[in-house]
Each structure stands twice: as C-alpha cells, then as structure tokens.
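In the current project phase, we have settled on a layout for protein records. A sample record is reproduced below.
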Amino acid sequence: MTTISPPRVPAAAATAADPAARRRFFGITIGLLLVNFDATVLNVALPRIGEDLHSAAAALPWTADAYTVVVSGLLLAAGALADRLGSRRVFRGALITFAVFSVLCALAPNAGTLIAGRALLGVSAAGLMPASLALLRVLYPDPARRVRAVGSWAAVTTLGLSAGPALGGLLLALDSPDAWRLIFLVNPPFALLGFALIRGIGEPERGPRRNVDVAGLLLSVVGLGAASFGLIESGSAGWTNPVVLAAIAVSVLAFGALTLVERRTAAPALPPVLFSLTRVRTALGSALLTNYLWYGLWFLLAIWLQTVRHLSPLETGLFFVPAALPCSMVPPFTARAVNRFGARRVQVTGFTLYALAAALFIAAGSHAALWIYIVGALMFSLAAVQVVPAVTSEISVAAPGRYAATGQGALYAARQAGSALGVAVVSAVGVANLRGAAAALFVGAALALVLITFGGRASQSR
C-alpha cells in the first residue's frame, strides 16, 4: 500500500495570516519604502542644500540625480547577481550599506561628498529593488495570495514617492540651515528594522550555476547609466549639447554590443528567453511610461509650486500629503481587480486616469485655485496605485521563477529610465510652462494605452 504524504511547504513560505509572514513582509516593504522615499525627498530640499553647502548651481541637481543615475545603471546587473548569489543575501547586505551611506550623506561637508554619498546610496538601492519581489515569491508561493501581497508591496512605491516631498518639507520647516541633514538620518533606523524583520526568510530558486557573464553585466551598467545621464543632463543642457549626444551614443553602442554578447554566451546575465516574452516586454513598456508620468509631474510640481505659485518648502510638502492617501486605501481593491479582471484591464483604467488628470492640468493652466492642482495630483496617485501593482504582478507571473530577480531588475530599470525621461522632458518644456509639460505627460498616457492594447492582443494571439 502506497502512502501519499501531503506536499511540504517551505518554512519561509507562509499563509497571509501567518505572523512570521507578516513580519517578513513588513521587512521587505521597509527596504522598498526607503528606496522610493530617497528618490523624491530631496526635490524640496535642493535650495536649502545649495545655501548650506555653498554649492554651484550646476552641481546642485546632481545631489538628487546621482542617486537616479546609479540606480538606473545597476538595476539589471543587481537583478542578475541576486538570481546567482541569492536574493536574501543581496537584500540584507543592501539594507546595511543603505544605513551606512545615509549617515555619510548626513555628515557631508560639501556638495562633492554629498553627491558621492548619494551615488553610493544608489548602489544599495539597486540591490534592494529587484531582490525584494524575488523574496515575495518565496513568502507567498500561492499565486492569488502573491497578487494581493504584490499589490500592497507595489503601493509602498507610490507611498514612498508621495511621502518624500511631504516629509522633506516638514523637516525643512525646522529653523536651522542643517535641517536637510535630518532627511538622511531617517533612513538608518528603518534599514536596521527591516534587516531584523526579514530574519528566517527562505532563499528563492537560483538561476543556473555557471560562470558570471561579466561582459553582459558591465555593458548593461554602461548602457543604462549613460542613457540615464544623458536624459537627465538634457534637461538643463539641451538635446544638442555634445555631452548629452555622447552619452546617448555610448548607451546605444553599449546596448548593441550587449545584444551580440548575450546571444553568444552560454550563461547570459540577461537571458534572451525572458525578453522574448510579449507579456514581459509590454509590462516593461508600461513601467517606463508610468514612471515617466509620475516623476515628470512630481518634479514639475515640486519646483513650479515654489517658483511660480511662491509656496514655501513646508507648504509644498503639505501639498503632496493628499496624494499619499490612496497608497494606504486602494491597494486591496487593486489586488482584487487584478485577480478578477486581469492586469491589462487594470492598467488601462490607470492610464486613462493619468490622461484625464493631465487634461485637467492643461485646462487649469498656471493660475487656477490650488485645490484643482491637488485634485490632479490625487488623480495621478490613484492612477499609480492601479498601474504599478498591475505591472508588477504581470512581471511576477510572466517571468520564469529562476529569473525572478532579473525580471524585477528589468522592471525597475525600465521605471528608472522612465523617471529620467519624465524629468528631462519636463525640464526641456520648462517648469514654468505647466500647460506644455502637462501636454507632454498626456502624450505619454496615450502611448501607454496604445501599447497595452496592442501588446495584450499580441500575447493573447500566441
């Protein structure tokens, strides 16, 4: 007589009601919250930092942008390494270094040191982002529960992005030229808490144990880093600037070489099988465009409110508070919608809301009542908490398990590229030209709707 044993569930794979699972989930989301908080928190602090450190006008934007460039450049490589070395190991190491580099930024005596510290923070952030969702696959192996967890996890992205300017403005309200340093001292306690909370989590399935594709990783770093640098620099220098053109050319050459290298190597860092999937490519395009919209608007408003509407840093920070509210209320409904209607329909809803909000800004112009702009920002936030969880869920389902972190690295790389593009386009149009910038954002939302419609049809026809 044959005895059939029930399937074993790994110790770290738990149900949603398991207290240990909730603890580990909070630890993972703390890491993600820090990454996104630091992406926007300096937007309202740049004038104060320039005054305190006597920074040159040309160097000041790079105290914020150094973080974005490094994160963009390293995301694909970090995802591939997490698949090879272990996502848990990479995530915990990145939390510790994030805390250390935050202290370095807080103690920076000059702009050069602060820029270097922000770049190092970007290295740690690149390790946290792709590894975090790979760990969620271990924590919630059941697809339906994972979709709900991914919804809450992805909402932390918009919460961090929204809370950054708000908390930055509150800290800057302190009557001290050094108040901006407190922004970085918020990070270490939370990073250490996250490190403690994920204790005991399992390690995801790893990719094939072969030689590391060093050439592929380096080319991805050069390609993404150069593209991000060129896009950001174009905002102030213009698209015809030789440095911008050189950066874009380097990026194109690096990606061309990367394509050739990955086809010939036995163990590609960026497996072609992953990027051959229509669902993956469509999700990456959606991720790029949602960050183009989100970062473009947030960058625009953070400066426009202070320079055109003459709000103080505190008032500017408080302006963003209502936009953070959907991040705590909407995710459970988004997860149910993804499970019931599918990720593609939820994305269509979100990008339609983006388009309507952009149209509202176009109609309002620069001199309407402030509450109209608050409504527009709230609509953007509602759109983001539809699109981001849906896109993240799509990648987590479409990417093979052994390439989970690589898929997430690609997702975040696309989002970072979109962020840089949004800032570049808004800067090129001019932050004082609210209608023109909003029109550029409207075009992005329309492109996303076209992409999802045709990408969804292509994947269904296979």
Summary: The longest helix spans residues 143-172. Confidence is low (pLDDT under 50) at residues 1-14. The domain at 19-201+213-460 is CATH 1.20.1250.20 (Growth Hormone; Chain: A;).
